[in-house]
Amino acid sequence: MSNTAGKVIKCKAAVAWEAGKPLVIEEVEVAPPQKHEVRLKILFTALCHTDVYFWEAKGQNPLFPRIFGHEAGGIVESVGEGVTELQPGDHVLPVFTGECKECAHCKSEESNMCDLLRINTDRGTMLNDGQTRFSKDGKPIYHFVGTSTFSEYTVSHVGSVAKINPAAPLDKVCVLSCGICTGFGATVNVAKPKKGSSVAIFGLGAVGLAAAEGARVSRASRIIGVDLNSNRFEEAKKFGVSEFVNPKDHNKPVQEVIAEMTNGGVDRSVECTGSIQAMISAFECVHDGWGVAVLVGVPSKDDAFKTHPMNFLNERTLKGTFYGNYKPRSDLPGVVEKYMNKEMELDKFITHSVPFSEINKAFEYMLAGEGIRCIVRMEH
């Protein structure tokens, strides 16, 4: 065990004291891991739209002060009681969802939505005792989705930590903890395009580009990008997207435009925006008889999906997915190996890098729509 095992660690963390206000680098105390928990030394982390969304307090029940962050790579510092599959020194990726390996979902080959550890944005404490492991001056600081990686050290449930190949560069594979796996898996695990097929990707942010990368790896012959921002089209070419449609450029529904382009519709579509209209368009643009549409984006709570039942009767299929249908502990190590074997590319997703002391720049880049992923380098 490490020489800090069982002891409180004092370290730097980027604390969100108020909604929408710049993070403040503070010295915080991180308690030792308890039963079924691990304490991690974070080496690299990245900013995701989900962090920004809840930092702006657009989610319900905002909890502050809070430590955000859920895309990261690090090393196990110490383990709590009952943890046998991880040990100090292991290279790991913490994940916003989990895999307890005991519930019906974890035992199912078809689901990755763990009953115990699926994402919970409202909970700011640990499952074991309902307390936080972060504090400053004796006052608690809340966790975020069980990861809180904007800290030099963090504590997670063992079920939300994937052990990976120690040879994998953590400054690259850390982006697999959330958005990239979500998009890539939506294509390769759920849409499953065949070689030579046509695929439409709705939304060309990080998740949509990852979905396009999945189509490229699957050797789709046509990858059509759909986005309201034409500035994204040039970047998308790096991910195999060769045709582009901006719905604002047409006076008819985009699903009709795509149907005309593809002689009746695409073989597969993946929706990565959260817009209910994009979801409907993504479904209605697939070919009858065999077309499959996959929904990835998270809609507003009052949205309703409306389409004519004949679209289903004509043998179009609509699916949804969560985290690309990957089980974090079982499947993520294999995705890392895909990168190591050059079967997928990650470097092109990483457009910026900043030291931890300048983490607020990562927020500025994302809010300005600049780049895809910004890596934050810890300064231990």
Automatic annotation (TrEMBL):
One of its GO terms (cellular component) is cytosol. Residues 35-164 form the Alcohol dehydrogenase-like N-terminal domain. InterPro entries: ADH-like_C, ADH-like_N, ADH_Zn_CS, GroES-like_sf, NAD(P)-bd_dom_sf. Its EC number is 1.1.1.1. CDD domains: alcohol_DH_plants (cd08301). SUPFAM superfamilies: GroES-like, NAD(P)-binding Rossmann-fold domains. It is an enzyme of class 1 (oxidoreductase). Pfam families: ADH_N, ADH_zinc_N. The keyword Cytoplasm applies. GO terms for molecular function: alcohol dehydrogenase (NAD+) activity; S-(hydroxymethyl)glutathione dehydrogenase [NAD(P)+] activity; zinc ion binding. Keywords: Cytoplasm, Metal-binding, NAD, Oxidoreductase, Zinc. Its cofactor is Zn(2+). The keyword Transcription regulation does not apply. GO terms for biological process: formaldehyde catabolic process. Belongs to the zinc-containing alcohol dehydrogenase family. Homodimer. This is Alcohol dehydrogenase. It comes from Rosa chinensis.
